[in-house]
Design brief:
Helices cover 79% and strands 0% of the residues. It has helices at residues 2-11, 17-46, 52-63, 66-83, 90-108, 114-138, 145-174. Helix 6 (114-138) packs across helix 7.
Length: 182
C-alpha cells in the first residue's frame, strides 16, 4: 500500500487534470444518488418534498458568479415549470427574480453567517410558496386557509432545515478547490 501511495506521489498521477475531473464526476454521481435516496426517504416519512431547485438557486446566487447564478435560476425555473403542476412560467420568473435579488442583496449585505443564509432560504421559500398559492387562488383553485398556511410555513421550514446539510455538502465536495468566499 505504501508503495502505491509513493508511486502516485512520484509519478504525479493523482495531480493530473483528468484524474481531478474523474474525481469530480465521481463525486457528482455519488451526490446525485445520495440526493435521490434522501429525497425518497423524506417523501415517504414526512410527505413533504424539499425544494432542492430553490436551494440550489440560493446557493448559486450566494457563491457563484452573477452570470452562472442567473443562468441556473432560469434553467431551474424552466425545469420546475416543465415538470411541475403550477402555471407555466411562474417558477422561471420567480427563480430568476430570487437569483437577481440575492445577487443585488449580496452586494449590500454580506451573508457570511449561516443564520443569515438560513433566514434567506426561509424567506425565499415562504415568498415562493405564497406567490404560487396566490396565483392558484387567482386562477380559481380553492385552497383552505389551514392547508395554505401549512404549505407555506411547513414547506419553508423544511427547506430551511434541508439547506444546512446541502450547503455543507456543497462546501465539501463542489467548492473545495475553488476560491469562493463563504
Amino acid at each position: 500500500m505504501k508503495f502505491l501511495l509513493w508511486y502516485r506521489k512520484v509519478s504525479g498521477t493523482f495531480l493530473t487534470t483528468e484524474n481531478r475531473a474523474l474525481r469530480l464526476s465521481q463525486k457528482a454521481i455519488f451526490l446525485f444518488f445520495l440526493a435521490v435516496i434522501i429525497l425518497g426517504t423524506l417523501q415517504a416519512a414526512f410527505n413533504y418534498m424539499p425544494d432542492f431547485l430553490l436551494i440550489s438557486v440560493v446557493i448559486a446566487a450566494l457563491f457563484l458568479p452573477a452570470r452562472a447564478a442567473m443562468a441556473l435560476g432560469i434553467f431551474a425555473g424552466l425545469f420546475k415549470d416543465s415538470f411541475g403542476a403550477s402555471s407555466f412560467g411562474i417558477n422561471t420568473v420567480l427563480f430568476t427574480f430570487w437569483s437577481f435579488s440575492i445577487l443585488k442583496l449580496n452586494r449590500k449585505i454580506t451573508f457570511d453567517n449561516d443564520l443569515m443564509r438560513l433566514a434567506l432560504v426561509f424567506t425565499a421559500g415562504f415568498l415562493q410558496n405564497t406567490v404560487n398559492g396566490a396565483l392558484r387562488l387567482y386562477l380559481g383553485t380553492t385552497i383552505p386557509p389551514g392547508i395554505f398556511l401549512r404549505i407555506t410555513l411547513a414547506s419553508s421550514a423544511y427547506n430551511t432545515l434541508v439547506f444546512i446539510p446541502v450547503l455543507s455538502l456543497c462546501r465539501r465536495f463542489i467548492f473545495e478547490n475553488r476560491r469562493f468566499r463563504y
